[in-house]
């Protein structure tokens, strides 16, 4: 009689890697939305919504698997927190893209353009770094360079955020446009903050596992 193979449980690490890949895809679409004309942004926003929807479905799948699995690689609360924070990152990316469409801002002043680019670059770097490092989650203690770099990027994002707000209030634009752009700037800042919170969760997990 042949040896029966041991049944395999869900591969949570693969799920988290898929979530991180959704972040890269989402930021790429956010970048395209920012660079596109108001007419082109709608279709790109819809693509971003579709990515966010797939992310939600994956997040629900992870939570269900966590709750139904007899053995998990980490504490259930930690797995749920990881899934939730990855999902938060994608939600904020989707929200930032949606604001660019809803507010219909056609021309962003050149004084603000490069500063907004800097904020988006921070988010893109955070997403790329997260996707690159998520396969290492099996040994979170080895991810120290990841959370340190995310923290550095978030600080860089904070600086870009403050500079963008200063330039915005000095721009001489009408009040309504300033309010709209301020919401977009704050939305981008929320994206960077979400990545830092995710990194903090992974750092805490590493401390528990060390």
Automatic annotation (TrEMBL):
Belongs to the UPF0111 family. InterPro entries: PhoU-like_sf, Put_Phosphate_transp_reg, UPF0111_domain. This is Phosphate transport regulator. It comes from Pauljensenia hongkongensis. Pfam families: PhoU_div.
């Amino acid at each position: 009689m042949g040896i029966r193979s041991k049944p395999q449980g869900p591969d949570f690490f693969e799920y988290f890697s898929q979530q991180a890949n959704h972040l890269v895809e989402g930021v790429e679409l956010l970048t395209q939305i920012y660079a596109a004309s108001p007419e082109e942004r709608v279709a790109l926003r819809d693509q971003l919504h579709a990515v966010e929807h797939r992310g939600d479905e994956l997040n629900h799948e992870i939570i269900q698997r966590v709750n139904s699995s007899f053995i998990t690689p980490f504490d259930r609360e930690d797995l749920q927190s990881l899934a939730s924070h990855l999902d938060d990152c994608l939600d904020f990316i989707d929200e930032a893209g949606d604001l660019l469409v809803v507010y219909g801002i056609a021309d962003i002043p050149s004084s603000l353009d490069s500063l907004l680019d800097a904020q988006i670059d921070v988010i893109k770097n955070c997403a790329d770094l997260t996707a690159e490092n998520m396969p290492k989650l099996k040994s979170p203690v080895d991810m120290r360079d990841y959370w340190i770099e995310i923290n550095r990027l978030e600080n860089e994002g904070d600086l870009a955020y403050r500079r963008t707000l200063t330039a915005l209030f000095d721009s001489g634009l009408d009040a309504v446009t300033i309010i709209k752009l301020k919401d977009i700037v704050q939305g981008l800042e929320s994206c960077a903050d979400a990545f830092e919170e995710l990194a903090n969760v992974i750092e805490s997990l590493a401390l528990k596992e060390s």
